[in-house]
Amino acid sequence: MAAATLETLLGRHGHDGTRLVQILREVQDALGWLAPETLTAIAHAIDRPRAQVESSAGFYSFFHTRPLGDYRILFSDNITDRMLGSQALLRRLCERLWLEPGRVSEDGLVSVDTTSCTGMCDQGPALLANYRAITRLTPQRIDHMARLIRRRVPVSDWPREWFRVEDNIRRRDVLLGNGLAPGEALAAALERAPTALLDEIERSALRGRGGAGFGSDIKWRACRAARGDAHYVVCNADEGEPGTFKDRVLLAGFFDLVVDGMCIAGFAIGASQGFIYLRGEYRHLLDLLETRLAERRAAGLLGRDILGRGFDFDIAIHLGAGAYVCGEESALIESLEGKPGKPRIRPPFPVTHGYLGQPTTVNNVETLALAALIAVRGGEWFRTIGTASSTGTKLLSVSGDVARPGVYEFPFGVTVAAVLEAAGAQDTQAVTTAGAAGPCLTAEAFGRRIAFEDVATGGSLMVFDASRDMFEVARNFINFFAHESCGLCTPCRVGTAVNARLMDKLARGRGSPCDLEEMEKLHQLMQHASHCGLGSTATIALRDMLARFRPAFERRLRSPDFAPDFAPAFDLDAALSQARGMTGRSDPGAHLGDETSATGALRAGEEPR
Amino acid sequence: MSDEHARAAPPPRKLKLATVSLAGCFGCHTSFLDIDERLLPLLERIEFDRSPLTDIKHCGPCDIGLVEGGVCNAENVEVLREFRAHCRVLVALGACAVNGGLPAQRNNIALGELLQEVYRTGHGLAAGSRIPDDPELPLLLNQVHPVHEVVRIDYFLPGCPPSADAIWDFLNALIEGRAPTLGPGLLQYD
Amino acid sequence: MNDSFLLDGETIPFSPGQTVMQAAAAAGKYIPHLCWHPDFAPHGSCRLCIVRIGGRYATACTVGAARGQVVENRSEAIDAERRTLLQLLFVEGNHFCPSCEKSGDCVLQATAYEMGMLTPHFDHFYPDRPLDASHPEVLLEFNRCILCELCVRASRDVDRKNVFALAGRGLRSHLIVNSESGRLADTDFAATDRAAAVCPVGAILKKRVGFAMPIGKRTYDPRPIGKSHEPGTREDE
Questions:
Q1: What does the DSSP assignment read for A221-249?
Q2: Do B99 and C90 touch (CB under 8 A)?
Q3: How many structural domains comprise chain B?
Q4: Residues of A with CB below 8 A from B141's CB?
Q5: What number is the average pLDDT over the span A106-121?
Q6: Which residues between 568 and 607 in chain A have a beta carbon less than 8 angstroms from any beta carbon of chain B?
Q7: How far is Cα A468 from Cα A425, in angstroms, rounded to an integer?
């Protein structure tokens, strides 16, 4: 049966190796896990070396090469989920299921673990049940869930209410209040020649909304000018930055505008194929989006001869599988090609050498939607909104300690304070303005403006009131990066892991001031030497928090008298526990005191006799 | 001694040097002795405190401590802490002190399994042999650690063992109050 | 023809398309590196070859040489960062030089000497990585693998066998071989493959030839790696 299932699946993907990530996901859905012989069969079918198939299977968090239970429960482990009580809920579920976190139950029924931010920070705590998002968890839901699992009720039969994902749009501006009909923007764009369209985008001064703010017209022109057998448009919907969820809302509620934007990009650069790279955590959107694409094809808004104007452009959705690094455009392209999502060496950039080595433009969901808007309303109009160097509006995902978490559309130039006020934040001690990968602002900076030239952001604002322990925020971020580092380059792979260990050491109360210095030194190294933005941004928030919330860290240090410049990371007495157990000893010699018992120690500056 | 010498400042105090081998093989100490006749001028400038060469059991206040070997048991920890407390400058001497060395290659085996294998289930054991539990014996740590994971270390002199020349250069620098460096060919990990 | 840049104040000529590393190597100048090899496409992963060009950091193995570049290579500040990168690699794996057959011929070790690395500094990870001795002629000692992918590249691009790949992510990244059993013996790997000779560390070793060369006569005994790039010497084999 497994073989037949496999053959059907592989046939549907045309035995195409570039579809490997999709194939692995579907095979895992069908067979439960990716067994060694399954990987061999896939490798044969797509004519790729088995090691490469195993390489991809081993890279993504949502693929497992060992059985992890019929029910795989993954709690979103963003700091905002934690602030909403996710850790207690995880423990509760484990207790109800007689289970240890991270372990598969004896009967192979279920495993419970954590996963990186699932993009439901406005309605957490959240989890993924067999990779389907469940929001607004409560102790009651957890108890109910445990009963359903024990009774082996399929996830598809769980209460539908649990899977409801709210949009939580709190403020609309020109984008979220656009009122355009499907295809309207596209029709307006096709009125012009591609070069005229590019001029319009240039007039708008539209900049990429992913955070880096690269000029969209420059990117599109470079891509159009690049020679290749085919050109590609990729919509980066791998919204993985902790605390961001605005693309989820755009895709769920404004999908036609996004698709219009992709078609427009395709028209502008001369592409006939587009991809949407949808993060695996948004699996719940897949069927909806596929349906909508089919409807558009039927309506002449996608596919062959769009709107009767002889323009061919189609879109395939590619689902990610749990890898934050795929938000980096070249890693995303690797993943699109079926490989592990490791960032490429750049240059060459994707605009000249992207998908399958061909010219490719990768744009954020929001950028594409705005491009569609500009095609209708014009670049001049767009430029009247926002600031001189940051035109238009920005979608902000606001979560954490606010009365009204959700998506806020503000013109660029809005102050952080104004956003906080709109969201009903009180007693705010800190805001992270670019998720886990950006700065951490404190009150004196709340007058600063959201704009590329001031507070640049991809849109993730997480708010922390005065009751929050900023050390735990930093630790959550550091663990996130250690989990998400792709492992390609030394400073990020090992540096994030060393940082995670140092933070754990501090959390155990075993730190010394030299550990804080160590983290600052690693910050420098990772800034200078990392291969991609993941490594070079992984310690920015930590650096800020070390500078601005020093006492939260220093509270974790051993007393300065004991450890002015050094403290071991581990408990030496505990390191004798196995030996005590094996020998049954409990005499004084079977223990080590924590501090030095040596007498006559030299004091600082003292010389021997 | 001439009058002129007598009027001059008293000869500098001899520096106190302590040495110890923890989870090591004494190879580094042997290499130390390989400085051969240079030991004599050295002894004009240092005197040994605790060391296998003196049989002093506990170290007093010292200028320099040389620690060979990693930390594999409770006694190693206590001795290392004593050295740290008493030595102004503490040096990790040799591969095992620097990264755990050969003894640390047990670190991937759970200690319980290891003791079972060695004392209960291994080949050639006498009938009824059991895991020693005499309070005189130091208990093993779960893993072997290089010394810098247990106390602060001022300087590292790698090598298995560090050569006599490397030790000689290193000590001379320390005695003269310079930051020790290893000249060409003296830095070796094997 | 007159294109050149400055490397630590010395004029280095380059031809179009060359990277800073290639031009430097051709001129006999040493830029520290582990994952770069003249015969293979750059990988940019070890990051040892970071240099500063006009104040910005870049890897010499991936950045193109350009006229008038001012490249800072062997400054104390950059070597210090390289030392830290080496220390990270040493604590990540299990690198016990005294018991390693590659000692004296190892690029990781020789580079650590060159950078004056006296201690691994960080706490060791002591990972558990069982070795693979299944192949009759070649041993895989994963404890020493530094994930440079030279074997991956050699097996893919020269041997056309794709015997090796990296699997896992982050700190769990590890070398795998192209067989369902995971054993090298079950692949078409041969001791004569380029991939068998390209490992810069002691992760891929030919059996029964270890320790044949006495100390003093090994690759980096007479000549430190920093001098090995000078004219008349070869880095590899």
A1: HHHHHS--S--EEEEEE---STT--HHHH
A2: yes
A3: 1
A4: 572, 575-576, 579
A5: 97
A6: 568-570, 572, 575-585, 587, 589-592, 596-598, 600-602, 606-607
A7: 13
Is A587 a member of any domain?
Answer: no
pLDDT of res. A560: 62
Question: What CATH code is carried by the domain that includes residue C101?
Answer: 3.30.70.20
For residue B124, how many C-alpha atoms fall within 13 Å in the half-sphere facing its CB? 1
pLDDT more than 70, % of chain A = 96
pLDDT confidence of residue B12: 75
Task: Please check whether residues A428 and A534 belong to one and the same domain.
Answer: no
**Blockwise average pLDDT, block size 10, chain B, 190 residues:** 56 90 97 96 95 91 97 97 96 98 95 94 90 95 97 96 96 92 88
* Residue A222 in tokens: 């470079």
B101 touches chain C (CB under 8 A): yes
The boundaries of the domain holding residue B27 are 13-107+141-175
- Domain count along chain C: 2
Q: Do C165 and A49 contact (CB within 8 A), yes or no? A: yes
- Neighbours of B (≥3 Cβ pairs closer than 8 A)? A, C
- Do A355 and A458 lie in one domain? The reply is no
pLDDT for A608 equals 56
Q: Does one domain contain both A539 and A498? A: yes
The label of the residue with tokens 């295809």 reads: A183
Q: How do residues A224-255 score in pLDDT, each as one tens digit? A: 999 999 999 999 999 999 999 999 999 999 99
C82 assigned to some structural domain? no
- What whole-number distance in Å separates Cα of residue C159 and Cα of residue C192? 10
What is the structure's pLDDT at A604? 41
The single-letter DSSP state of residue B71 is E
Assign residue A531 the CATH number of its domain: 1.20.1440.230
pLDDT number for residue B161: 97
Instruction: Tell me: do A486 and A533 sit in the same domain.
Output: yes
Whether residue B65 lies inside any domain: the answer is yes
